[in-house]
Amino acid sequence: MKHAQAEIVREYGPYEGIENVHGLTFDGKTVWFASGERLNALNPGDGALGRVIEVPADAGTAFDGQHLYQLADDRIQKIEPDSGRVVATIPTPGGAGSGLAWAEGSLWVGQHRNRKIVRVDPETGAVLRTIDCSRFVTGVTWVDSELWHGTWEAGESDLRRIDPDSGEVLHRLDLPPDTGVSGLESDGGDLFYCGGGASGKVRAIRRPRG
């Protein structure tokens, strides 16, 4: 297993009126992050906040190229970004989730205390497969066929790449002490975006290559 300290490239926030950052996703231009009662649009270039979508948003967020998906307790909401309208919902597997990602035509749901990642049919909510993990799962993302997830347990957080078949940890990036990860998304290139939980921050972390 490869192991290194995470390189925090930039921090965004905290922002007035936002006490927690939960899940987050990246649509190619904008980072959308969940803060409890709404989704917030963050420009990663200048750190400015833009649009707000008023929707329950207490955990993971994902983007499939057209729609946003947002965890809210026992359901996953499918949202039109332009209108902010919830156009469909499916049940959250197990009744609750933490992280959320889109890849290979499916949603991937992190289950925090169950220490699992579940692949879900986005139309029906049916569970297609389950991956066991060794720590609490607080965020999930795919990039270049690599499956990464965030952890936050016993006051320690890291990002880890795992084998999607066995769950074996292949690469681990440790966060500094007292720096939690409450959501995870790749920009498709050299960065991960991480929710910072009650710090109210979003962090950009360099993605290792190779």
Automatic annotation (TrEMBL):
Pfam families: PQQ_2 (PF13360). Signal peptide: none annotated. Residues 73-207 form the Pyrrolo-quinoline quinone repeat domain. InterPro entries: PQQ_rpt_dom, Quino_amine_DH_bsu, WD40/YVTN_repeat-like_dom_sf. This is PQQ-binding-like beta-propeller repeat protein.
